[in-house]
Amino acid sequence: IGARVVRGLDWKWNKQDGGEGHVGTVQSFESTDEVLVVWDYGTAANYRCSLAYDLRILDSSPTGIKHETSVCDVCQQQPVYGIRWKCAECTNYDLCSACYHADKHNLRHRFYRIASPTAKKYDKLFFYRAYGW
């Protein structure tokens, strides 16, 4: 609850969010498969978050998550709030969500999406920027 979201890969709701690039906030979990999002545009609706992914987390820093010992290698933010993006190709290279989503590093590199500082290795997912994964 509190995470900032944008359209995900399975989005099929036209301009319900105000259009491409608009941002909303997760208000509540309606079930294990569905969340309620309030869009900055002014509307609120339920979206899938299990078998289909209508949403993509843009920023989880409003939830209070912070990576105390991490520094964004682009903007120098420390600690990194919300999701920490760790380059899988470069040695010890981290980005905050703002720099990651602004394509501030090589788009062909794979990234680990680290949702919390206590994430186990298997909790870290690979993302490929060049292909939108």
Sheet with most strands: 5 strands, antiparallel
Compute the CA-based radius of gyration.
15 Å
Question: What's the helix-strand series?
Answer: EEEEEEEEEHEE
CATH superfamily of the largest domain: Zinc finger, ZZ-type
Pfam families: MIB_HERC2, ZZ
InterPro entries: Mib_Herc2 (IPR010606), Mib_Herc2_sf (IPR037252), Znf_ZZ (IPR000433), Znf_ZZ_sf (IPR043145)
GO molecular function: ubiquitin-protein transferase activity; zinc ion binding
Main location: cytoplasm
Task: Please tell me about this protein's structure.
The chain is mainly beta and about 130 residues long. It folds into two domains: about 5-60, SH3 Domains (SH3 type barrels), CATH 2.30.30.40; about 65-130, Wheat Germ Agglutinin (Isolectin 2), domain 1 (2-Layer Sandwich), CATH 3.30.60. About 5% of the residues lie in helices and about 35% in strands. The protein has one helix and eleven strands; from the N terminus they run E-E-E-E-E-E-E-E-E-H-E-E. It has a five-stranded antiparallel sheet. A hairpin with a 4-residue loop joins strand 3 (about 35-40) and strand 4 (about 45-50). The longest helix has 5 residues, at about 95-100. The chain starts with a strand and ends in a 5-residue tail after the last strand. The mean pLDDT is about 85. It holds the Pfam family ZZ. InterPro entries: Mib_Herc2, Mib_Herc2_sf, Znf_ZZ, Znf_ZZ_sf.
